[in-house]
Amino acid sequence: MTRGLWTRETVALLTLAALLPLAVFWLWLGGVEALFRLALILLVIAIWHLIFMLARAQPPSLSALVTALAIAMLAPEGLGTFQLILGISFGVVMGELVFGGWGRNVVNPATVALAFLGFGFPAAPWPVFDVPLAWAAIPAGVLGLALGVMPGALMAAAVVLGAAASLAGMVDDAVLHAAGIALVLLVVDPVTSAATTLGRWLQGAGYGGLVILFATGWGGAAPAQMAVAAALLASLAAPLFDDIALSFWVYRRRRRHGRT
Amino acid sequence: MTFLRSRAGLIPDFPSPVEGAEVGEVVTEEAGLVPPASQPLQVTLLVREGDLVARGAAVACLRHTPDLCLVAPIAGRVARIALLPGRRLSEIVLFRDDDGGAERHPTGAAASVGSLRRLMQTAGVWPLIRRRPFGGMPHASEAPAAIFVMGADTRPQAIDPQEALDGREEAFARGLSALGLLTDGPVFAVWPEAGRGIERPTAGTDLRVIPCGPRHPQGSAGIRIHQAFPAGLDTPVWDIHAEDVADLGDLLDTGELPATRLVRIAGAGLREGARLRTHPGADLRQLTQRIALPGPHVLMSGSHLDGRAAHWLGPRDRQVTVLPRQAPEPRPHWLIAALTASAGAKPAIPTSALSQSLGAALPAAPFIRALGAGDDEAAMSLGVLSLLEDDIALADFALGAGGEIKDQLRAILDRIETEYAP
After folding, report:
1. By CB count within 10 A, which of A145, A201, A209, B150 is most buried?
2. Euclidean distance between CA atoms A116 and A94, whole angstroms
3. Residue A103 in contact with residue A8, Cβ under 8 Å?
4. Does the beta-carbon distance from A190 to B349 stay under 8 Å?
5. Contact B343 A149 (CB under 8 A)
6. pLDDT by 10s per residue, chain A, length 260
7. Which of A2, A101, A148 has its CB closest to that of B353?
8. CB contact under 8 A, A6 and B340
């Protein structure tokens, strides 16, 4: 029996390949310190994957690399090792592994970990992204789109809304950069984003709308914090968007054919 | 939107050697009569082992519907009859003997619906029709809400139905008109965009042409039924291959069902590919023995995607796939097996590949998730009643599921049939 390639691990590898431009730029700009941070996060995630493999027979996934990169890039800076380990453990275990591993989770583990770190240690400063790094999110998104592992409708809705808000002067460049990076790292995760076309448009618009709302109404928040909070809320609303889209799809078919 | 739809789907590439230009006709020395896939048939035998039967003569009829007959694909002697418990048909093997001749049926049956149905059921046309929901051939008294004629086939290395219709336009139009009598609803013809024009049947048939692009699963009957006229529990929809429609036209004209169909033999286990005319139930070993590569190989009736390892060409199949037999995978270390094998069904990740493997016709990820979860109601609302294993074979292949998704679909269909069907 011949088999196709689009297994869970292929998608994880392709997502990683799409994010490589971003990862390379970030490591280049961050140097050895960034590399150590990434290695530490990867080690913590790998240990949890190993524990769940031994305890629950859940095969580990290469998506751990994507999660590690997202946490390493977006996590607040100046956190102690213990704090970082606590946050990562919470995100990876409660956001992914207890649901049965990558592919069955309902929220992105990196988003959960980042939200936990942000709310748990509010004094830690959020990272600020340089312009070249923000630009590297564009090839990452294009690659993900071309490889078919990132939802195009979601990205299009968020980009259109972001561009319109930027032209209208509602968000400044720093927020736009952070939102762009969070978009490719967290929001367009194929598993936890909406799975229907209409749902993806709604989620993209929801993410963009929340970023604009936070940028205009959340005084004192860092751009990365706004992006992570918007990603978390949009991700939590994804099943609702999907449900709306499916109900609409079924309604249209009932009207047209009298049955589904 | 039409442009986008015509580009929906994938073109899976499977290696196969170049085929010769010659199209020979082969009647194999042995032939097997087997029931349609996924439909156990309780039969009453009309012949005994050693009897000489004509081609097209009834050899068995359905136990609870005696009008519905299974006919001999070749003239020959009945060599072996294999039944499963409950008088379910396993196979009837015939040895070729041309002295048996061919069965002729009275012409002029198209005058009334009743006589047309009777002719189709006794002459062996009925098993060539597949019904949805649930698959298999239709019940003898069933009236379809619509009929789909498949004039395009997008499965990898499938034979082009248009080639099979070459020079048979009149017979096809006659068959199409006859099909129109069987239903009060429309007759849909799924036709290649780049193909020849379709021969219109006589007035009275509500014929609607659906253009079909080259990508799979655009030429898959279930996907087309799902898009154009979804099947329901009380609205069965039939589909039939265009060449079989032309055969029906010839049966109505001459009283004799054409014996052979155009078949392609392809696959990586061959020295050279072949196109030939042969009959249903043909012996696959004889068809491939001169062109198969040395060494062990698997013979499948059907395409790479939906084929089944078989001895005989399936009743509706027009493709034979020959693959080299892979050595069984070495068993993993017991600890690795214990840690990874109990994880159950692997999750499907929503990607463009998944969406395109279902022709972008339905919300792919929710549908695959509903199948995996065994959620009958969600699957029904997403259109599972129009689909069969063949239609989701590409998704199963693309996700590397190894037949798991097809099994899940069959389990859901069987459950729905038990719990909901009238």
Report:
1. B150
2. 11
3. yes
4. yes
5. no
6. 577 888 888 999 999 999 999 999 999 998 899 999 999 999 999 999 999 988 888 888 899 999 999 999 999 988 889 999 999 999 999 999 999 889 999 999 999 999 999 999 988 899 988 888 899 999 999 999 999 999 999 999 999 999 999 999 888 889 999 999 999 999 999 999 999 999 999 999 999 999 999 999 888 889 999 999 999 999 999 999 999 999 999 999 999 988 87
7. A148
8. no
On whether any CB of chain A is under 8 Å from the CB of B337, the answer is: no
User: Measured between beta carbons, which residues in chain B are less than 8 angstroms from residue A104?
Assistant: 347
Beta-carbon neighbour count of residue B156 at 10 Å?
19
Instruction: Indicate the residue of A1, A5, A11 with minimum beta-carbon distance to B403.
Output: A1
The residues, ordered by sequence, that sit 6+ positions from B356 with a Cβ below 8 Å of its Cβ are: B8, B9, B10, B215
Instruction: Please state the ipTM of this predicted complex.
Output: 0.92
Residues of chain A with Cβ-Cβ distance to B381 below 8 Å are 246, 250, 260
Q: Do B349 and A260 touch (CB under 8 A)?
A: no
- B347/A101 CB distance under 8 A: yes
Distances (CA, A) of B353 to B206, B232, B311, B364, B395: 36, 28, 33, 10, 8
Helix or strand holding residue B44 (H, E): strand B43-45
In chain A, where the domains are located = 8-120, 131-257
Pair B397, B12: CB distance under 8 Å = yes
